[in-house]
Amino acid sequence: MQIVLISGLSGSGKSIALNVLEDAGYFVVDNLPATLLPQLVATLRGSGYQRVAVAVDVRSGGSIAALPQQLQAVRGIVRDVRFVFLEARDDTLIARFSETRRRHPLAEGGVSLGEAIHQERDALAQIAELGHRIDTSDMHANTLRTWIKDFINVEAESGMTLMFQSFGFKYGIPMDADLVFDVRCLPNPHYDPMLRPLTGRDKPVIDFLEKVPEVGRMAEDIRRFVANWLPSYLRDNRSYLTVAIGCTGGQHRSVYIAEWLARRFKDSAQVLVRHRSAARRDADRAAAGK
């Protein structure tokens, strides 16, 4: 049996994640009080359900504080338990609530939207550390759908899921990053008109970067750092570790190095690779019909 637990901030994309899981054949339960989680899992397991997705968040009230203990209890029942925590910047959440005109679940009794978001973020701070965090700020819905599909398709094995994520500093540092490396000091293919529209996954950009000795040294230094400290994160019982690689626009250098690192670690950990800013660019072009 596989359990996917979804939590996070209101407006961060939990409904999108649940829809993806339901379309993939999961039995979906939304807005479950955390205290009922072990009972629900035991009941559904006894009824023969194989894949279940459950959303638990502040709508369940004070019971959300019990989620860490209930999550531990569920892992005593089911081996394959995955936890996704969705979050976003305050300005992104405010914009989404303004666009949809929905009311924040904590915006009651004269509490403003901004205050409600801060209250919710404080209430979920400890819970966020328990799962695989995804920052959906400025993220298109299709990108989130793809990332959720990638997450549930990772094989359930002991150990850690290691995620290498490229991003552009001009869009801000991802909130879900555990380790951040800045590669903006490396030569930028953006200044070559032939390379500008490409990404770090395209051969001309790869060839350009591989000819620069500093690129290889930087990539190897990051690889060595992650390899040296990965055992410490494993001893800390971490299930997920996100290593973010940033360049100016998140299109060339960071993409190349994220892919390079993913290949180096594929035999020692469960590896995911994501390109935040490159995915944003592709989605924008698709929306524009280019």
UniProtKB/TrEMBL annotation:
The keyword GTP-binding applies. Pfam families: PapZ_C (PF22740), RapZ-like_N (PF03668). GTP binds at residues 57-60. One of its GO terms (molecular function) is GTP binding. InterPro entries: P-loop_NTPase (IPR027417), RapZ-like (IPR005337), RapZ-like_N (IPR053930), RapZ_C (IPR053931). Residues 1-152 form the RapZ-like N-terminal domain. ATP binds at residues 8-15. Keywords: ATP-binding, GTP-binding, Nucleotide-binding. Residues 160-277 form the RapZ C-terminal domain. This is RNase adaptor protein RapZ. It comes from Parazoarcus communis. The lineage of its organism: Bacteria, Pseudomonadati, Pseudomonadota, Betaproteobacteria, Rhodocyclales.
